[in-house]
Amino acid sequence: EMLIRSVLRSASAASALKQCTADQSNFRSIATKATSKPPAPTKGKKPPSKATKIEQAQATIPETFLKDQAELRRRQLAEDEKNPNADVFPDGRPLFTSAASLSTLCKDDVNTYFRFSMDELKEVLPEGLPPGMVKEFEESWRSALLVRQHFIELRDNFRRAADPPSLLVHSKAPTFRKQIVLDGPVSCGKSITLAMLVYWARKEGWLVFYVPGGRSWTHGGFFYKNPHTGRWDTPVQAAAILRDFLKYNKPCLQGLKCSILDPVPLGEGAGVGPPRGGDEMEVARGTTLCDIVEAGIRNTHAAVGVVVRLREELSKVSSVPVLFAIDQYNNWFTFTEFEEPVTVRSCRPIHAKELSTVNAFRSMMHDNMMVGAFSHSTAVGKLRLELPDVPLDSRINLPRYSFDEAAAVSRYYLRQRLVKQESFSEENWKKIFFLSNGNGTEMRYLFPFMR
Protein backbone atom coordinates (compact mmCIF):
# COMPACT_ATOMS: atom_id res chain seq x y z
CA GLU A 1 0.00 0.00 0.00
CA MET A 2 2.80 2.40 0.81
CA LEU A 3 4.42 1.55 -2.50
CA ILE A 4 1.21 2.20 -4.42
CA ARG A 5 0.75 5.63 -2.75
CA SER A 6 4.33 6.58 -3.57
CA VAL A 7 3.87 5.74 -7.24
CA LEU A 8 0.60 7.77 -7.45
CA ARG A 9 2.22 10.83 -5.83
CA SER A 10 5.13 10.70 -8.31
CA ALA A 11 2.79 10.46 -11.32
CA SER A 12 0.68 13.39 -10.04
CA ALA A 13 3.75 15.59 -9.56
CA ALA A 14 5.06 14.79 -13.01
CA SER A 15 1.68 15.65 -14.57
CA ALA A 16 1.55 19.00 -12.71
CA LEU A 17 5.10 19.82 -13.74
CA LYS A 18 4.30 19.05 -17.37
CA GLN A 19 1.17 21.26 -17.29
CA CYS A 20 3.12 24.16 -15.74
CA THR A 21 5.82 23.86 -18.40
CA ALA A 22 3.22 23.92 -21.14
CA ASP A 23 1.52 27.00 -19.63
CA GLN A 24 4.84 28.83 -19.41
CA SER A 25 5.59 27.92 -23.01
CA ASN A 26 2.23 29.30 -24.18
CA PHE A 27 2.73 32.46 -22.14
CA ARG A 28 6.13 33.06 -23.73
CA SER A 29 4.74 32.64 -27.25
CA ILE A 30 1.88 35.06 -26.53
CA ALA A 31 4.23 37.60 -24.97
CA THR A 32 6.60 37.29 -27.90
CA LYS A 33 3.82 37.98 -30.38
CA ALA A 34 2.55 40.94 -28.36
CA THR A 35 5.93 42.58 -27.91
CA SER A 36 7.37 41.80 -31.36
CA LYS A 37 7.95 44.81 -33.62
CA PRO A 38 5.88 45.25 -36.77
CA PRO A 39 7.67 44.19 -39.95
CA ALA A 40 9.82 46.91 -41.43
CA PRO A 41 8.59 48.38 -44.72
CA THR A 42 10.19 46.92 -47.80
CA LYS A 43 12.84 49.25 -49.16
CA GLY A 44 12.46 50.59 -52.67
CA LYS A 45 8.64 50.54 -52.72
CA LYS A 46 6.85 53.87 -52.88
CA PRO A 47 3.68 54.47 -50.86
CA PRO A 48 0.48 54.15 -52.89
CA SER A 49 -0.55 57.31 -54.72
CA LYS A 50 -3.90 59.06 -54.39
CA ALA A 51 -5.14 57.48 -57.62
CA THR A 52 -4.15 54.02 -56.36
CA LYS A 53 -5.97 54.58 -53.07
CA ILE A 54 -9.08 55.67 -54.96
CA GLU A 55 -8.94 52.56 -57.14
CA GLN A 56 -8.50 50.35 -54.06
CA ALA A 57 -11.45 52.03 -52.36
CA GLN A 58 -13.62 51.69 -55.45
CA ALA A 59 -12.68 48.02 -55.73
CA THR A 60 -14.34 47.38 -52.34
CA ILE A 61 -17.66 48.89 -53.51
CA PRO A 62 -20.06 46.28 -54.91
CA GLU A 63 -20.31 46.44 -58.68
CA THR A 64 -24.10 46.23 -58.58
CA PHE A 65 -24.26 49.35 -56.40
CA LEU A 66 -22.11 51.32 -58.85
CA LYS A 67 -24.26 50.21 -61.77
CA ASP A 68 -27.43 51.22 -59.94
CA GLN A 69 -26.01 54.64 -59.13
CA ALA A 70 -24.90 55.17 -62.73
CA GLU A 71 -28.31 54.14 -64.04
CA LEU A 72 -30.04 56.49 -61.59
CA ARG A 73 -27.82 59.39 -62.66
CA ARG A 74 -28.46 58.60 -66.32
CA ARG A 75 -32.24 58.73 -65.79
CA GLN A 76 -31.99 61.98 -63.84
CA LEU A 77 -29.89 63.63 -66.55
CA ALA A 78 -32.40 62.51 -69.18
CA GLU A 79 -35.18 64.15 -67.18
CA ASP A 80 -33.12 67.32 -66.76
CA GLU A 81 -32.81 67.64 -70.54
CA LYS A 82 -36.58 68.19 -70.66
CA ASN A 83 -36.43 70.91 -67.99
CA PRO A 84 -35.18 74.25 -69.40
CA ASN A 85 -34.87 75.68 -65.88
CA ALA A 86 -32.00 73.30 -65.21
CA ASP A 87 -29.78 75.16 -67.70
CA VAL A 88 -29.85 78.55 -65.98
CA PHE A 89 -28.05 80.13 -63.06
CA PRO A 90 -30.04 81.25 -60.00
CA ASP A 91 -29.94 84.83 -61.35
CA GLY A 92 -31.44 83.73 -64.68
CA ARG A 93 -28.26 83.74 -66.80
CA PRO A 94 -27.89 80.78 -69.19
CA LEU A 95 -25.52 78.03 -68.13
CA PHE A 96 -24.66 77.13 -71.76
CA THR A 97 -23.71 79.61 -74.44
CA SER A 98 -25.86 79.98 -77.52
CA ALA A 99 -22.82 80.61 -79.76
CA ALA A 100 -22.66 78.21 -82.68
CA SER A 101 -18.83 78.13 -82.85
CA LEU A 102 -15.75 79.20 -80.95
CA SER A 103 -15.26 81.96 -83.51
CA THR A 104 -18.44 83.78 -82.44
CA LEU A 105 -17.75 83.73 -78.71
CA CYS A 106 -17.63 87.17 -77.10
CA LYS A 107 -17.20 88.62 -73.63
CA ASP A 108 -20.86 87.96 -72.83
CA ASP A 109 -20.19 84.23 -73.16
CA VAL A 110 -17.47 84.20 -70.49
CA ASN A 111 -18.16 81.77 -67.61
CA THR A 112 -20.68 79.80 -69.65
CA TYR A 113 -20.20 76.34 -71.15
CA PHE A 114 -19.69 75.58 -74.83
CA ARG A 115 -21.03 72.25 -76.10
CA PHE A 116 -18.80 70.16 -78.36
CA SER A 117 -19.66 67.26 -80.60
CA MET A 118 -17.36 64.37 -79.71
CA ASP A 119 -17.31 63.06 -83.27
CA GLU A 120 -16.38 66.47 -84.63
CA LEU A 121 -13.85 67.02 -81.85
CA LYS A 122 -12.04 63.77 -82.66
CA GLU A 123 -12.18 64.60 -86.35
CA VAL A 124 -10.63 68.06 -85.95
CA LEU A 125 -8.08 66.91 -83.34
CA PRO A 126 -7.08 63.43 -84.56
CA GLU A 127 -3.65 63.74 -82.90
CA GLY A 128 -5.38 63.20 -79.55
CA LEU A 129 -7.26 65.12 -76.85
CA PRO A 130 -5.57 66.40 -73.68
CA PRO A 131 -5.99 64.02 -70.72
CA GLY A 132 -7.60 66.80 -68.67
CA MET A 133 -10.25 67.34 -71.34
CA VAL A 134 -10.99 63.62 -71.58
CA LYS A 135 -11.29 63.33 -67.79
CA GLU A 136 -13.64 66.32 -67.65
CA PHE A 137 -15.92 64.76 -70.25
CA GLU A 138 -15.91 61.38 -68.51
CA GLU A 139 -16.70 62.72 -65.05
CA SER A 140 -19.33 65.25 -66.12
CA TRP A 141 -20.96 62.95 -68.71
CA ARG A 142 -21.10 65.80 -71.23
CA SER A 143 -18.64 67.11 -73.82
CA ALA A 144 -18.71 70.76 -72.77
CA LEU A 145 -15.98 73.16 -71.61
CA LEU A 146 -15.98 76.43 -69.71
CA VAL A 147 -15.49 79.56 -71.82
CA ARG A 148 -12.72 81.51 -70.12
CA GLN A 149 -11.68 85.08 -70.78
CA HIS A 150 -8.10 83.94 -71.35
CA PHE A 151 -9.12 81.77 -74.31
CA ILE A 152 -11.01 84.63 -75.96
CA GLU A 153 -8.00 86.92 -75.54
CA LEU A 154 -5.66 84.27 -76.96
CA ARG A 155 -7.98 83.63 -79.93
CA ASP A 156 -8.31 87.35 -80.69
CA ASN A 157 -4.54 87.79 -80.43
CA PHE A 158 -3.82 85.24 -83.17
CA ARG A 159 -6.76 86.47 -85.21
CA ARG A 160 -5.12 89.91 -85.34
CA ALA A 161 -1.70 88.36 -85.94
CA ALA A 162 -2.98 86.44 -88.96
CA ASP A 163 -4.88 89.40 -90.41
CA PRO A 164 -3.64 92.71 -88.97
CA PRO A 165 -6.41 95.30 -89.27
CA SER A 166 -5.88 98.29 -91.54
CA LEU A 167 -5.65 101.33 -89.27
CA LEU A 168 -5.82 105.04 -89.82
CA VAL A 169 -2.78 107.19 -89.25
CA HIS A 170 -4.00 108.71 -85.99
CA SER A 171 -5.59 105.54 -84.58
CA LYS A 172 -3.91 103.37 -81.99
CA ALA A 173 -3.05 99.89 -83.25
CA PRO A 174 -4.11 96.94 -81.07
CA THR A 175 -1.13 94.96 -79.83
CA PHE A 176 -0.61 91.32 -80.66
CA ARG A 177 2.14 88.73 -80.38
CA LYS A 178 2.95 86.00 -82.85
CA GLN A 179 4.84 83.87 -80.33
CA ILE A 180 3.27 82.96 -76.98
CA VAL A 181 4.23 80.56 -74.18
CA LEU A 182 1.38 79.48 -71.89
CA ASP A 183 2.58 79.01 -68.34
CA GLY A 184 0.87 78.69 -64.99
CA PRO A 185 0.35 76.35 -62.02
CA VAL A 186 -0.66 72.71 -62.29
CA SER A 187 -4.25 72.10 -63.51
CA CYS A 188 -4.90 75.68 -64.60
CA GLY A 189 -6.14 74.64 -68.08
CA LYS A 190 -3.11 75.26 -70.32
CA SER A 191 -3.50 72.10 -72.41
CA ILE A 192 -7.27 72.54 -72.77
CA THR A 193 -6.86 76.18 -73.79
CA LEU A 194 -4.29 75.17 -76.42
CA ALA A 195 -6.53 72.39 -77.78
CA MET A 196 -9.47 74.81 -78.05
CA LEU A 197 -7.24 77.26 -79.94
CA VAL A 198 -6.19 74.53 -82.40
CA TYR A 199 -9.83 73.49 -82.83
CA TRP A 200 -10.83 77.09 -83.58
CA ALA A 201 -7.94 77.67 -85.99
CA ARG A 202 -8.63 74.52 -87.99
CA LYS A 203 -12.33 75.31 -88.21
CA GLU A 204 -11.25 78.69 -89.61
CA GLY A 205 -9.27 76.94 -92.36
CA TRP A 206 -5.79 77.42 -90.92
CA LEU A 207 -2.93 74.97 -91.37
CA VAL A 208 -1.99 73.93 -87.83
CA PHE A 209 1.02 71.86 -86.84
CA TYR A 210 -0.29 70.46 -83.53
CA VAL A 211 1.83 68.45 -81.10
CA PRO A 212 -0.30 67.32 -78.12
CA GLY A 213 2.68 65.59 -76.45
CA GLY A 214 6.07 67.25 -76.86
CA ARG A 215 7.55 64.78 -74.40
CA SER A 216 7.06 61.96 -76.91
CA TRP A 217 9.69 63.61 -79.13
CA THR A 218 12.39 63.07 -76.48
CA HIS A 219 11.51 59.63 -75.10
CA GLY A 220 11.51 56.14 -76.58
CA GLY A 221 12.57 54.68 -79.90
CA PHE A 222 15.92 54.49 -81.66
CA PHE A 223 18.43 57.33 -81.75
CA TYR A 224 21.50 57.74 -83.92
CA LYS A 225 24.08 60.48 -84.27
CA ASN A 226 24.05 62.00 -87.73
CA PRO A 227 27.69 62.49 -88.83
CA HIS A 228 26.70 65.24 -91.29
CA THR A 229 24.78 67.47 -88.85
CA GLY A 230 26.29 66.41 -85.52
CA ARG A 231 22.78 66.04 -84.06
CA TRP A 232 20.81 62.99 -83.00
CA ASP A 233 18.19 61.51 -85.31
CA THR A 234 15.07 59.79 -83.93
CA PRO A 235 13.39 58.09 -86.92
CA VAL A 236 10.61 56.41 -84.91
CA GLN A 237 9.38 59.73 -83.52
CA ALA A 238 9.84 61.43 -86.88
CA ALA A 239 7.57 58.93 -88.64
CA ALA A 240 4.92 59.38 -85.92
CA ILE A 241 5.15 63.17 -86.29
CA LEU A 242 4.53 62.95 -90.02
CA ARG A 243 1.60 60.53 -89.62
CA ASP A 244 -0.09 62.77 -87.06
CA PHE A 245 0.41 65.88 -89.18
CA LEU A 246 -1.11 64.19 -92.21
CA LYS A 247 -4.27 63.01 -90.42
CA TYR A 248 -6.17 66.31 -90.62
CA ASN A 249 -4.02 68.44 -92.94
CA LYS A 250 -3.79 66.11 -95.94
CA PRO A 251 -6.34 67.98 -98.14
CA CYS A 252 -4.55 71.28 -97.49
CA LEU A 253 -1.08 69.81 -98.10
CA GLN A 254 -2.17 68.39 -101.45
CA GLY A 255 -2.66 71.92 -102.73
CA LEU A 256 0.70 73.27 -101.51
CA LYS A 257 3.80 72.74 -103.68
CA CYS A 258 7.30 72.51 -102.30
CA SER A 259 9.23 75.78 -102.35
CA ILE A 260 12.59 74.11 -101.65
CA LEU A 261 13.77 71.68 -104.31
CA ASP A 262 17.08 70.76 -102.67
CA PRO A 263 17.49 67.02 -102.01
CA VAL A 264 16.40 65.77 -98.57
CA PRO A 265 19.35 64.21 -96.69
CA LEU A 266 18.91 60.62 -95.56
CA GLY A 267 20.02 59.15 -92.25
CA GLU A 268 19.94 55.86 -90.41
CA GLY A 269 16.58 54.14 -90.35
CA ALA A 270 14.78 52.60 -87.39
CA GLY A 271 16.74 49.41 -86.76
CA VAL A 272 17.95 49.01 -90.37
CA GLY A 273 21.19 50.99 -90.36
CA PRO A 274 22.37 53.60 -92.89
CA PRO A 275 20.86 53.83 -96.38
CA ARG A 276 22.32 51.97 -99.32
CA GLY A 277 22.98 53.42 -102.74
CA GLY A 278 22.81 57.13 -101.79
CA ASP A 279 22.43 59.58 -98.93
CA GLU A 280 19.87 61.98 -100.49
CA MET A 281 16.25 61.88 -101.66
CA GLU A 282 15.51 63.97 -104.72
CA VAL A 283 12.61 66.44 -104.73
CA ALA A 284 11.13 66.87 -108.22
CA ARG A 285 9.55 70.09 -109.42
CA GLY A 286 5.81 70.11 -108.73
CA THR A 287 6.09 67.90 -105.65
CA THR A 288 3.48 68.79 -103.05
CA LEU A 289 3.95 68.89 -99.30
CA CYS A 290 1.66 65.88 -99.08
CA ASP A 291 3.96 63.93 -101.39
CA ILE A 292 7.07 64.69 -99.38
CA VAL A 293 5.37 63.86 -96.07
CA GLU A 294 4.14 60.52 -97.41
CA ALA A 295 7.65 59.79 -98.69
CA GLY A 296 9.02 60.38 -95.19
CA ILE A 297 6.46 57.97 -93.76
CA ARG A 298 7.30 55.24 -96.27
CA ASN A 299 11.09 55.63 -96.12
CA THR A 300 12.43 55.34 -92.58
CA HIS A 301 15.81 56.76 -93.71
CA ALA A 302 14.12 59.99 -94.85
CA ALA A 303 11.75 60.50 -91.88
CA VAL A 304 13.98 62.86 -89.88
CA GLY A 305 15.11 64.80 -92.94
CA VAL A 306 11.51 65.30 -94.07
CA VAL A 307 10.48 66.61 -90.63
CA VAL A 308 13.29 69.16 -90.73
CA ARG A 309 12.43 70.10 -94.31
CA LEU A 310 8.72 70.40 -93.39
CA ARG A 311 9.55 73.10 -90.87
CA GLU A 312 11.32 75.11 -93.55
CA GLU A 313 8.49 74.61 -96.04
CA LEU A 314 5.76 75.66 -93.58
CA SER A 315 7.59 78.92 -92.86
CA LYS A 316 7.26 79.83 -96.55
CA VAL A 317 3.50 79.13 -96.87
CA SER A 318 1.59 82.37 -97.46
CA SER A 319 -1.68 81.23 -99.04
CA VAL A 320 -3.11 80.09 -95.70
CA PRO A 321 -2.33 81.05 -92.08
CA VAL A 322 0.07 78.61 -90.43
CA LEU A 323 0.14 78.02 -86.67
CA PHE A 324 2.57 75.89 -84.68
CA ALA A 325 0.96 74.63 -81.44
CA ILE A 326 3.16 72.61 -79.07
CA ASP A 327 1.92 71.11 -75.80
CA GLN A 328 4.44 69.97 -73.15
CA TYR A 329 6.76 72.56 -74.68
CA ASN A 330 8.92 72.68 -71.55
CA ASN A 331 10.23 69.17 -72.29
CA TRP A 332 12.20 70.63 -75.19
CA PHE A 333 14.39 72.61 -72.77
CA THR A 334 15.48 69.69 -70.58
CA PHE A 335 17.34 66.42 -71.02
CA THR A 336 15.97 63.45 -72.92
CA GLU A 337 16.05 59.83 -71.78
CA PHE A 338 18.76 59.14 -74.37
CA GLU A 339 22.40 58.80 -73.32
CA GLU A 340 25.67 58.85 -75.26
CA PRO A 341 28.39 56.45 -74.12
CA VAL A 342 31.49 58.39 -73.09
CA THR A 343 33.62 55.66 -71.52
CA VAL A 344 33.10 51.99 -70.81
CA ARG A 345 31.39 52.82 -67.51
CA SER A 346 29.86 56.25 -68.04
CA CYS A 347 27.30 57.93 -70.29
CA ARG A 348 26.38 61.51 -71.04
CA PRO A 349 22.70 62.57 -71.03
CA ILE A 350 21.57 64.04 -74.34
CA HIS A 351 19.78 67.39 -74.22
CA ALA A 352 16.59 67.93 -76.21
CA LYS A 353 18.19 70.68 -78.28
CA GLU A 354 20.64 68.10 -79.66
CA LEU A 355 17.82 66.20 -81.38
CA SER A 356 17.30 67.08 -85.04
CA THR A 357 13.50 67.23 -84.79
CA VAL A 358 13.41 69.35 -81.63
CA ASN A 359 16.12 71.67 -82.91
CA ALA A 360 14.08 72.35 -86.06
CA PHE A 361 10.85 73.31 -84.23
CA ARG A 362 11.86 74.62 -80.80
CA SER A 363 12.93 78.16 -81.63
CA MET A 364 10.45 81.05 -81.48
CA MET A 365 12.88 83.58 -82.92
CA HIS A 366 11.06 83.92 -86.25
CA ASP A 367 8.03 85.62 -87.78
CA ASN A 368 5.72 82.57 -87.75
CA MET A 369 2.77 82.20 -85.41
CA MET A 370 3.63 79.77 -82.63
CA VAL A 371 2.21 78.92 -79.22
CA GLY A 372 3.66 76.51 -76.71
CA ALA A 373 2.09 75.29 -73.47
CA PHE A 374 4.06 74.13 -70.45
CA SER A 375 3.03 70.90 -68.75
CA HIS A 376 4.14 70.71 -65.14
CA SER A 377 2.86 67.15 -64.79
CA THR A 378 5.65 66.06 -67.17
CA ALA A 379 8.25 68.54 -65.94
CA VAL A 380 11.73 67.28 -65.12
CA GLY A 381 12.75 70.44 -63.30
CA LYS A 382 11.89 74.10 -62.98
CA LEU A 383 13.01 76.19 -65.93
CA ARG A 384 14.46 79.66 -65.65
CA LEU A 385 12.37 82.62 -66.73
CA GLU A 386 14.56 83.52 -69.69
CA LEU A 387 14.61 80.59 -72.10
CA PRO A 388 16.95 80.31 -75.09
CA ASP A 389 15.35 80.90 -78.50
CA VAL A 390 12.20 82.34 -76.85
CA PRO A 391 11.28 86.07 -76.81
CA LEU A 392 11.31 87.62 -73.37
CA ASP A 393 7.77 89.01 -73.58
CA SER A 394 6.16 85.83 -74.91
CA ARG A 395 5.21 84.16 -71.63
CA ILE A 396 1.61 84.41 -70.41
CA ASN A 397 0.62 83.01 -67.01
CA LEU A 398 -2.79 81.35 -66.92
CA PRO A 399 -4.34 81.42 -63.45
CA ARG A 400 -6.48 78.75 -61.88
CA TYR A 401 -10.23 79.22 -61.54
CA SER A 402 -11.27 82.60 -60.23
CA PHE A 403 -14.19 82.96 -57.83
CA ASP A 404 -16.66 83.67 -60.65
CA GLU A 405 -15.33 80.79 -62.75
CA ALA A 406 -15.58 78.43 -59.77
CA ALA A 407 -19.20 79.51 -59.27
CA ALA A 408 -19.99 78.58 -62.88
CA VAL A 409 -18.14 75.27 -62.57
CA SER A 410 -20.04 74.44 -59.37
CA ARG A 411 -23.41 75.06 -61.01
CA TYR A 412 -22.37 72.99 -64.00
CA TYR A 413 -21.37 70.03 -61.83
CA LEU A 414 -24.68 70.34 -60.00
CA ARG A 415 -26.45 70.35 -63.36
CA GLN A 416 -24.58 67.19 -64.38
CA ARG A 417 -25.47 65.42 -61.12
CA LEU A 418 -21.85 65.14 -60.03
CA VAL A 419 -23.11 66.22 -56.60
CA LYS A 420 -26.47 65.56 -54.99
CA GLN A 421 -28.97 68.40 -54.93
CA GLU A 422 -29.63 68.08 -51.18
CA SER A 423 -25.91 68.32 -50.41
CA PHE A 424 -25.16 71.33 -52.59
CA SER A 425 -25.04 74.79 -51.04
CA GLU A 426 -23.24 78.07 -51.52
CA GLU A 427 -21.20 77.49 -48.40
CA ASN A 428 -20.13 74.00 -49.47
CA TRP A 429 -18.89 74.89 -52.96
CA LYS A 430 -17.02 77.89 -51.57
CA LYS A 431 -15.29 75.60 -49.10
CA ILE A 432 -14.21 73.33 -51.95
CA PHE A 433 -13.00 76.32 -53.97
CA PHE A 434 -10.84 77.67 -51.17
CA LEU A 435 -9.66 74.19 -50.16
CA SER A 436 -8.47 73.40 -53.70
CA ASN A 437 -7.21 76.94 -54.38
CA GLY A 438 -9.04 76.91 -57.71
CA ASN A 439 -7.40 73.70 -58.94
CA GLY A 440 -9.89 72.33 -61.49
CA THR A 441 -8.85 68.70 -61.09
CA GLU A 442 -9.13 68.81 -57.31
CA MET A 443 -12.49 70.58 -57.43
CA ARG A 444 -13.92 67.92 -59.72
CA TYR A 445 -12.56 65.23 -57.40
CA LEU A 446 -13.98 66.80 -54.22
CA PHE A 447 -17.50 67.62 -55.41
CA PRO A 448 -18.94 64.08 -55.07
CA PHE A 449 -17.88 64.12 -51.39
CA MET A 450 -19.95 67.21 -50.62
CA ARG A 451 -22.16 66.62 -47.58
Automatic annotation (TrEMBL):
<dbReference type="GO" id="GO:0003735">
    <property type="term" value="F:structural constituent of ribosome"/>
</dbReference>
<feature type="region of interest" description="Disordered">
    <location>
        <begin position="28"/>
        <end position="60"/>
    </location>
</feature>
<dbReference type="GO" id="GO:0005763">
    <property type="term" value="C:mitochondrial small ribosomal subunit"/>
</dbReference>
<keyword id="KW-0689">Ribosomal protein</keyword>
<dbReference type="InterPro" id="IPR019368">
    <property type="entry name" value="Ribosomal_mS29"/>
</dbReference>
<keyword id="KW-0809">Transit peptide</keyword>
<dbReference type="Pfam" id="PF10236">
    <property type="entry name" value="DAP3"/>
</dbReference>
<keyword id="KW-0496">Mitochondrion</keyword>
<protein>
    <recommendedName>
        <fullName>Small ribosomal subunit protein mS29</fullName>
    </recommendedName>
</protein>
<keyword id="KW-0687">Ribonucleoprotein</keyword>
<comment type="similarity">
    <text>Belongs to the mitochondrion-specific ribosomal protein mS29 family.</text>
</comment>
